[in-house]
């Protein structure tokens, strides 16, 4: 692995929200084509960490580099330029409610990337087709299913040609029968070498493509390693214990596997 | 009865038609400027830097907290006595009325706009920012198009109110519908006919405005933004 040139690297990220230290000295680095999975109990700081990686949250302390260049949350230029290169997928999709699927994908191409309208249109259509929604281009979010909305939101992020994609529980808001279509897109992206950091509870699914699991608790990464090691039969890791708990709640690992296409 | 109609036809209607024109010249610019200013003030109250936010809050408190008649008196009678850098600003009755109506109605519009802006979910803003949009781009391309749709019923109501309170312009000597109506009533002593006709003129104005607003609402309505019909 090419440790010298990570796509994204952060060091010593701290974040306090209200009175609570939500992120406590987080460091991580992601190389090109790697998939890192954030797991951990609710409230452990996964969403906050992801939002610190594109400065939706301003870290109180810590440094961030994208392809070796340092970005500062205090610089407006840096802020917009970092966000253009880092895609984000939200748990509840956050499609722009007043725009059609096509316009959702196109808007940042026009406003942020300043592409000419015809080019932006073409690109937006291609991206929708890539997530299998070419025929839904003219529909508004209110007319789409949850799975379709999440796929549009992925097309919207991918149209910006992000260097890395941050996914915050992309399937948690979906009905079980809609999860598969979104996971299929994620699996496809991984196969094309897209660099990703994903917070998820879909352990079985992510184990099949993750290079590393990061287990978070109380704002710290308390365990990290490849899924094959952390989830090896008989392993006594926190990750294993956590997975056992999830599976107890949601059936068994088999169910999770069935949801993967 | 025929005498009654002749009076309406020969005296009241021609005069009120003239007043209708003057009222329209009052209402349309006031409505447009009021709405535009209201959007700006509403946006600044929610997204502006702290000092601007305070200034705009103060503006709204003053204009919502004082009678419109007092505001009109101020612009028409008091303003000429105030010296600003050696100059005095004397407004025509028309200009004073339009200024007064725009400022007052903007204060109310800004309330509806503010409420609508606050109703936009944080997720919409996060998504826009995550794509690299600047704050201004986010407000213009994502927040306002949604907020204006939500604010339209309230702002529409405010425009209907404006049509009715435009009658106060007559107090500062504008010959609008009400001004002309009062003049004919005084001259002819036929209060019933004149004021009944005057009421019908306002009813017509309000009806036309309602139809226009409903058309606009229909034009900009989108799936997911349907307004509850009342
Ligand atoms: N705006 C806020 N103000 C104060 N505290 C907050 C705020 N947002 C989040 N927190 C707290 O920060 C902690 C971490 O939240 P975060 O959403 O990052 O956790 P998470 O790991 O993503 O949890 P989940 O699995 O439920 O999504 C939680 O304890 C939460 O209560
Ligand atoms: Mg979360």
Helix % of chain B is over 70%
Instruction: Characterize the biggest β-sheet of chain B.
Output: 2 strands, antiparallel
Percent of residues in helices of chain A comes to: 25-40%
Mean pLDDT of chain A: 90
Strand order of the largest sheet of chain B: 1-2
Overall number of structural domains of chain B: 1
Q: Which series of helices and strands of chain B comes N to C?
A: HHHEEHHHHH
Low-confidence segments of chain B, ≥5 residues, pLDDT <50?
none
Query: Beta fraction of the residues of chain A?
Result: 15-25%
CATH top level of chain B is: Mainly Alpha
Number of helices of chain A: 10
In terms of structural class, how would the helical and strand content of chain A be classed?
alpha/beta
Can you tag this structure with a few keywords?
heterodimer, A: 261 residues, alpha/beta, 6-stranded mixed beta sheet, 10 helices, disordered C terminus, B: 230 residues, mainly alpha, MetI-like fold, 8 helices, 2 strands, flat, binds adenosine-5'-triphosphate, binds magnesium ion
């Amino acid at each position: 692995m090419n440790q010298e040139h990570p796509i994204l690297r952060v060091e010593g990220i701290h974040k306090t929200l209200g009175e609570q230290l939500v992120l406590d000295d987080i460091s991580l680095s992601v190389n090109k084509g790697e998939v890192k999975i954030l797991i951990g109990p609710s409230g452990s700081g996964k969403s906050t960490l992801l939002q610190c990686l594109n400065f939706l949250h301003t870290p109180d302390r810590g440094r961030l580099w994208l392809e070796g260049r340092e970005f500062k949350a205090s610089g407006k230029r840096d802020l917009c330029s970092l966000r253009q290169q880092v895609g984000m997928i939200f748990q509840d999709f956050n499609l722009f409610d007043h725009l059609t699927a096509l316009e959702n994908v196109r808007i940042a191409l026009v406003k942020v990337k300043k592409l000419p309208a015809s080019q932006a249109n073409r690109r937006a259509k291609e991206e929708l087709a890539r997530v299998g929604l070419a025929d839904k281009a003219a529909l508004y979010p209110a007319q789409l299913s949850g799975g379709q909305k999440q796929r549009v939101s992925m097309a919207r992020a991918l149209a910006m040609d992000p260097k890395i994609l941050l996914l915050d529980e992309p399937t948690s808001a979906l009905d079980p029968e809609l999860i598969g279509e979104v996971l299929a897109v994620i699996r496809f992206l991984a196969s094309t070498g897209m660099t990703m950091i994903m917070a998820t509870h879909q352990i079985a699914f992510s184990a099949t493509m993750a290079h590393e699991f990061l287990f978070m608790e109380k704002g710290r990464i308390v365990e990290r390693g490849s899924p094959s090691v952390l989830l090896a039969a008989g392993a006594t890791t926190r990750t294993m214990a956590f997975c056992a708990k999830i599976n107890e709640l949601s059936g068994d690992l088999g169910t999770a596997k069935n949801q993967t296409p | 009865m025929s005498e009654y109609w002749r009076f309406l036809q020969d005296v009241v209607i021609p005069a009120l038609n003239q007043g209708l024109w003057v009222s329209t010249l009052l209402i349309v610019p006031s409505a447009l400027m009021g709405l535009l200013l209201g959007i700006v003030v509403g946006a600044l109250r929610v997204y502006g830097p702290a000092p601007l936010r305070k200034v705009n809050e103060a503006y709204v408190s003053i204009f919502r907290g004082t009678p419109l008649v007092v505001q009109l008196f101020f612009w028409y009678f008091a303003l000429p006595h105030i010296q600003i850098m050696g100059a005095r600003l004397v407004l025509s009755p028309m200009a004073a009325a339009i200024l007064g109506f725009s400022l007052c109605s903007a204060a109310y519009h800004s309330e509806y706009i503010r409420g609508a802006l606050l109703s936009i979910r944080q997720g919409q803003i996060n998504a826009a920012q995550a794509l690299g949009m600047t704050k201004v781009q986010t407000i213009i391309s994502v927040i306002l198009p949604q907020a204006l749709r939500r604010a339209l019923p309230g702002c529409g109501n405010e425009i209907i109110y404006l049509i009715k309170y435009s009658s106060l312009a007559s107090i500062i000597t504008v010959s609008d519908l009400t001004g002309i109506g009062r003049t004919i009533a005084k001259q002819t002593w036929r209060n019933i006919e004149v004021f009944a006709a005057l009421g019908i003129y306002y009813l017509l104005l309000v009806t036309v405005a309602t139809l226009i607003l409903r058309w606009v609402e229909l034009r900009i309505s989108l799936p997911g933004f349907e307004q509850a019909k009342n």
